[in-house]
Amino acid sequence: MKNLNKLLLVSLLALTGGIPSWAQTSTFAGKIINVGTAATTLETGQWYVLYNAATTAYIVEGSDNTLGVSTTSPSGTDAASNAGYLVQLEETGTEGSYYLKSGLGNYYCNVTISRNNGTSATLATKYDYTITSFTTAGHWALRSHNLYYLQNSNGKLIGASARGSEGSDRDWALRSVTFSD
To answer: Phi and psi (nearest 5°) for 92?
Structure first.
């Protein structure tokens, strides 16, 4: 009976977003993350990590649906334990616009000038990101709901009112990911 109660509690927490989805992280069980080069074309269904070369930081989803940055590369690490680094693009129905879904199964929320709104298990239209290329292939600007550009400002992931320039804290590489056993 005690184990049944524990299973029900864990299932309830998973459904409410209190813990990562087992279905999502089980996809990565026994896998190692291999971070590749910056993508020059974008594909839905492909796993990526978001990397900013100017600040040498990766975007990572943390506990309690937070979204932050880390200077530690996930390459060569256990995929199930580091699924928060992973991101996939999902179609919104508008060309060049995507929903960003983390390896933990949550969607990147919108950002403002003073903060980011973390992630959400529930998809909302305001969570769309328009992704456009800078001059050099593999350099991308991500604009949250056509309002603010994703920026790593001194280790804090927030929005900026201007696009910025290639090589800035608003220049993101979507580096492709493969997995090995």
So the answer is: -105, -10
